[in-house]
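quick one, 558 residues, struct below
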Amino acid sequence: MKRVIGNLADKEFDLVIVGGGIFGVCAAWDAVLRGYKVALLEKEDFGSGASANCFKMVHGGIRYIQHGDIVRLRGSCNERSAFLRVAPHLVEPLPIVIPTYGHGMKGKEVLAAGMYAYDLLTFDRNRGISDNCRKIKWSSFFGKTKLLEQFPGLDSKGLTGGSLFYDGQMYNPPRLVLAFLRSAVEQGAEALNYAEVKDFIRDGDAIVGVEVVDKLSGDLINVRSKCVINAAGPWAEHLLNDSISARLKPAGVYSRDACFVINKQKVKDFALALQGQTSDPDALLSRPARHLFIVPWRDVNLVGVWHVVTKGRPDQFKMSEEELISFIDEVNEACPALELALDDVTMWNAGLVPFGENDPEATNLSYGKRSRLLDHQKEHNVSGLITLIGIRYTMGRADAQIAVNMAEKYLGGRRPNPNTDWEPVYGGDFESFEQLTHSVSHWLGTLGSSNQIPAAIAHNYGSKYIELTNYRDKYPGIIDGSDVLQAEVAHAVHEEMAVTLADVVFRRTNMGTAQYPGRAALEQSAGIMAEELSWSEDKCQSELHNVESLFAYQARGG
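---
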């Protein structure tokens, strides 16, 4: 992956994709496998928006049992299975426990009926998954005593036990985006980060390309194509409004979905689902309240998700310290024994996702149900333009495929759908994760004596970890206070289009994805980037200041 903007101006593409989140990169992977010439443009860094700031879960659709929506349930389950097949290094099963109380809607009997129905409806969920560690198991149940051994802080009054089901979890969402993108680039797609699409190029009623500003150099170029897929997430509508005055009807409603990282390990072997303070108005059969989750992730815990309907431009949404405290209070009310405090929070994540239509003062919010897919020829009499606003990370691959199918109307007709639900993405072609980790440990030599480092390398690079060898002679050590190799920083610069320190810290490595790694780690990483990119001292200090500011903001809120 080389960042050369001039390559884009010299060609005409079949398809230009605007947006480098999970929906955009999956569309690029799908389209290039069909044999199309593809260019992908991202205004910031790849996967830096909602994709990076999600709750790290790949949902199998169990909550749609409450809605009686079997189509969505099956669709979500199929996509979870696809991620487990094609990216086994970056997606794995997550066991989740729901405490049961009494014998009504909060009781074991009701949950058992729902979970067994879900298991039967998803009977084929492990099709094509050979590694037993990556298979989604059948639901099961805990007795009260065993549950309290696992979660001693639970309210025991009326407690009858717990229900256990499995969902999916991402090890590193930005690297999963990158895995799809690198797969596409290896097959011939062109990709560019920090390339902001400012306008669509029109020829009468047809869109024939985009006008792009290189945010690093200020250069303005035109990229021509037969069709454009606008997959810019919450920015998609603003691009349409600003460039061709094509307003969506109804206008989109977006939720700021927030979660936070705590440095206390309150849960370790299982995620814990707790009842919050709001209910689901769309459910045909609902428990008293929606669930909040405390989830083990690496060696920390994630707490979420908190939904707030947000208006205005996506670049301007914020999370204040007061809101963070309010969320902590809600979690503590659901489980007082957690005793969470603001000082326990190392980082919060939030991204904008499409939401349901709700009254302005509504407390029990209606969630968004499906991605928004639109051919603008029908809506606005503009041909050659498809908009895809994705509903959640889990549906990135499937909805991207639908968008490419729609685009083929402008590309000369249908070609067979590629098997993106079976074809391993970059680093995903291995049989056993345990064997992969053992191979990485052997490759690391003495550096592999730590259990964390081989696993982290195996997760982030999969079978492609050997590429790091090219940089280990020059950078043989470990970044201070982390499980990140120095070679990973140089590799990110030369092989993964990392151009800022934030790209490396937050999206190419584990360094800053869960907590502040310390000033020494940042300085060491900045020094490697300065060496590889010929940064001046002023540039180096500017990059350090920017990353420190991001950590300060995400640790405490605005």
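The mean pLDDT is 91.
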